[in-house]
């Protein structure tokens, strides 16, 4: 199959051979082989392109400490033959792209970034979130982006009802035409909350879509069926856009996860810390010192900070 893959990448396959290759690329063995071909091709393309003009996708994804990093990819013959399949190794998912010149934006820990997409749609990125999209979308073609982290989308409706799809790391996706929604995907949890309009959520590309109405929330965890909630308070899930953290009976363990994944803290716990204790309320998120003081008071905890390390103790 390796020789057939190379033949496919050279645009020399018959329709029957191409079908065999595409089926093989849906397997782990096929994806590993394609990744190896991508790395070899990109390594060769770097020899005659300056790092400043073409840093490459692997560098762009790995150097996530840089805020709003833009990556321009020179796919050359591989892209032309590969029919628009782009492997995002750092994020762990596949993104089909019609145009091979893509942009990757990453927000720093604790920062909120605003990104305007080629169609005028706007995306707000919460801290430690990566967004990837094509530099341009032709009329009549699907608009596709990929997200790892948390983002709020305000999707512009087009006159030709151009579909807009958000791909997530666990292979789930959100399909819309024009709407506003919040998407969260970290570790084993994926959550989508619809503010306005209509969306369809898929747990896998081949799965039947789940239709959401405004105020609906759907969550998926690894190995579990999707959980749908109706008429939730959407402000609880997207208040981070206004530099506020809103909690609605949130357990302390979820707050600690937020501190680690969105703000980049390493958290250690003392004895007796009530991880299942729940809290409702709001705390500021754009001032880390004030945020930690507020969390300390509402949960009745002692929080000691040393750089990016937090130690939490239960008050006597």
From TrEMBL:
Keywords: Membrane, Transmembrane, Transmembrane helix. The chain crosses the membrane at residues 78-95. The keyword Membrane applies. One of its GO terms (molecular function) is sigma factor antagonist activity. It comes from the Bacteria. Residues 113-199 form the FecR protein domain. The keyword Transmembrane applies. Residues 245-312 form the Protein FecR C-terminal domain. PANTHER family: PERIPLASMIC SIGNAL SENSOR AND SIGMA FACTOR ACTIVATOR FECR-RELATED, PROTEIN FECR. This is FecR family protein.
């Amino acid at each position: 199959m390796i020789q057939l893959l190379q033949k496919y990448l050279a645009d020399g396959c018959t329709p029957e051979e191409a079908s065999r290759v595409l089926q093989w690329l849906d397997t782990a063995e096929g994806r590993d082989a394609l990744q190896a071909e991508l790395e070899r091709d990109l390594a060769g393309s770097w020899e005659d392109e300056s790092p400043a003009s073409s840093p490459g996708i692997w560098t762009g994804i790995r150097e996530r400490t840089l805020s709003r990093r833009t990556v321009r990819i020179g796919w050359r013959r591989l892209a032309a033959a590969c029919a628009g399949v782009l492997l995002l190794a750092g994020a762990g998912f596949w993104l089909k792209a019609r145009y091979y010149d893509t942009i990757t934006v990453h927000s720093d820990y604790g920062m909120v970034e605003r990104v305007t997409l080629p169609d005028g749609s706007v995306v707000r990125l919460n801290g430690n979130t990566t967004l990837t999209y094509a530099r341009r979308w032709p009329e009549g073609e699907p608009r596709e982006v990929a997200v790892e982290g948390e983002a709020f989308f305000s999707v512009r409706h087009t006159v030709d009802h151009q579909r807009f799809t958000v791909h997530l790391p666990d292979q789930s996706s959100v399909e819309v035409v024009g709407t506003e929604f919040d998407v969260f995907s970290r570790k084993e949890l994926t959550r989508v909350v619809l503010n306005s309009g209509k969306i369809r959520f898929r747990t896998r590309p081949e799965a039947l879509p789940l239709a959401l109405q405004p105020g609906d929330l759907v969550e998926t965890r690894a190995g579990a069926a999707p959980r749908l909630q109706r008429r939730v308070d959407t402000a609880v899930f997207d208040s981070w856009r206004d530099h506020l953290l809103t909690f609605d009976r949130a357990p302390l363990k979820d707050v600690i996860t937020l501190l680690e994944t969105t703000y980049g803290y390493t958290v250690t716990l003392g004895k007796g810390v009530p991880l299942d204790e729940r809290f409702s309320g709001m705390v500021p998120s754009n001032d880390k010192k004030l945020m930690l003081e507020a969390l300390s008071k509402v949960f009745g905890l002692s929080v000691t900070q040393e750089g990016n390390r937090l130690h939490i103790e239960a008050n006597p």
